[in-house]
Amino acid sequence: MGSAPSLGERDYVRGGATQTAVKILVVGHFAVGKTTLIGSISEIEPLSTEETMTQAAESVDDLKGVQGKTTTTVAMDFGRLTISDRIVLYLFGTPGQQRFVQMWEDMARGALGALVLVDPERLADSFPVIDLIEHYGLDYAIAVNHFDGVPLRDERALREALDLLDDTPVVTCDARDEKSSAAALTTLVRYLLDRTR
């Protein structure tokens, strides 16, 4: 496992201007909204490996607290977002189920950081995800996906429940909303830039 690349190591040219390509993971537990977030923000048609859930999956995937979930990511999601003249994000969404965790090592390779989506009603499901991100040495920000009908949670209580470092960014977002998703990713990128200075 090598160190994460700095922002200057993956420069490329587009439209005559030098831009930096930044690989970002969008991670989280099963059914937290990773595919939705990438779909809401990608400037290209996102690549999605969503498949219909079968009855066999019901015995493997915990559907408690998940309503109306009929599809699931079986490989990855991919999207692209230009955030400035200099920085382009390549977004890689990981599957949330434990049985796909072996794919994370390859997906984490070359990533600069991760946006960890969290459901405040299923915080315990986020612990293994955060453990994996820390295992791969990636800096991350927490994006609390605000679901309809769920009250907003106190940030301090969330930090304590997730055992976060004081400087780990925590934002609330709606993965369905382009501006909200962009704000969450912008928070992560600013944090990563501060960490590389």
Structure overview:
The chain has one domain: Rossmann fold (3-Layer(aba) Sandwich). Helix content is 27%, strand content 29%. It contains six helices and eight strands; from the N terminus they run E-E-H-E-H-E-E-H-E-H-E-H-E-H. Strands 1, 2, 3, 4, 5, 6, 7 and 8 form an eight-stranded mixed sheet that branches. Helix 5 links the parallel strand 7 and strand 8. The longest helix has 19 residues.
Which helices and strands appear, and what pairs or packs with what?
Blueprint: E1 11-14, E2 17-28, H1 34-41, E3 47-52, H2 55-58, E4 71-82, E5 87-93, H3 104-108, E6 113-118, H4 127-135, E7 139-145, H5 155-162, E8 170-173, H6 178-196
Helix pairs in contact: 1-6
Keywords: ATP-binding, GTP-binding, Hydrolase, Nucleotide-binding
Organism: Streptomyces mutabilis
GO molecular function: ATP binding; GTP binding; hydrolase activity
Supply the CATH class.
Alpha Beta
Total number of beta strands: 8
Number of helices: 6
Low-confidence stretches: 9-14
- End-to-end distance, in Å? 22 Å
- From the alpha carbons, calculate the radius of gyration and give it in angstroms: 16 Å
Number of domains as seen in the coordinates: 1
Helical content class: 25-40%
Largest sheet: 8 strands, mixed
Percent of sequence in beta strands: 25-35%
> How does the overall form come out from the CA principal axes?
globular
What is the ordering of alpha helices and beta strands? EEHEHEEHEHEHEH
CATH homologous superfamily assignment: P-loop containing nucleotide triphosphate hydrolases
Mean pLDDT: 82
